[in-house]
């Protein structure tokens, strides 16, 4: 089973590349952002909590995310593998993901770190905000999201580095160039 953690700052292209990976490798895309936005749209209790935090550029508590993700994995018992997009964002979450997978006798195969410079991230997110209507794609929230990412999520790279699963992917260039680099990394471990 191929299980991919796709990692990178907001605006690095994780969602776009995840869609391409799903198409090529037949994996299930589990985006915690998409799952939480669906909960917000439903007006669920989880959605209300998430909405209040996300609109300020803050993270949803680990226990909420882990429960939602555990349920999402259970909904796909015949999956060839998963792409975890937007999770883990902290070492605690990375450890929790390892535990969730271990109880199913599977593991993370590779962590793809899509690396993009901050100025490019801000430009991409502002452009996305103009076309997507996402309320969290405004300059103040973008800056806060990048700051939180740098403070809390960069240690996750070290976590996967120690496991020999971290691969840095240059996130600039064309979508196809980035995807080619991703495929080379995945095919190398298969």
Tally of helical segments: 8
Q: Please bin the fraction of helical residues.
A: 55-70%
Q: Could you tell me the radius of gyration in angstroms?
A: 16 Å
Low-confidence stretches: none
Structural class label: alpha/beta
Residue fraction in strands: 5-15%
Question: What count of domains describes the coordinates?
Answer: 1
CATH superfamily: P-loop containing nucleotide triphosphate hydrolases
The arrangement of helices and strands along the chain is EHEHHHEHEHHEH
In words, what does this structure look like?
The protein has a 5-stranded parallel sheet, sandwiched between helices. The chain has 8 helices and 5 strands; from the N terminus they run E-H-E-H-H-H-E-H-E-H-H-E-H. It is an alpha/beta fold and 190 residues long. The relative contact order is 0.20. It has a single domain (2-182), classed as P-loop containing nucleotide triphosphate hydrolases (Rossmann fold), CATH 3.40.50.
């Amino acid at each position: 089973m191929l299980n991919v953690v796709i990692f990178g700052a907001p605006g690095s292209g994780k969602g776009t590349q995840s869609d391409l990976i799903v198409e090529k490798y037949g994996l299930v895309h589990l985006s915690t952002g998409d799952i939480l936005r669906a909960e917000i749209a439903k007006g669920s209790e989880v959605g209300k909590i998430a909405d209040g935090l996300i609109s300020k550029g803050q993270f949803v508590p680990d226990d909420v995310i882990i429960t939602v993700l555990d349920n999402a994995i259970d909904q796909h018992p015949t999956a060839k593998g998963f792409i975890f997009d937007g999770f883990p964002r902290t070492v605690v979450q990375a450890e929790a993901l390892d535990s969730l997978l271990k109880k199913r006798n599977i593991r993370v195969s590779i962590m793809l770190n899509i690396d993009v410079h901050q100025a490019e991230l801000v430009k991409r997110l502002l452009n996305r905000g103009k076309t997507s209507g996402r309320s969290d794609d405004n300059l103040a929230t973008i800056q806060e999201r990048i700051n939180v990412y740098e403070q809390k999520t960069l240690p996750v790279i070290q976590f996967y580095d120690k496991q020999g699963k971290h691969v840095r992917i240059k996130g600039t260039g064309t979508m196809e160039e980035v995807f080619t680099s991703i495929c080379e990394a995945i095919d190398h471990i298969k």
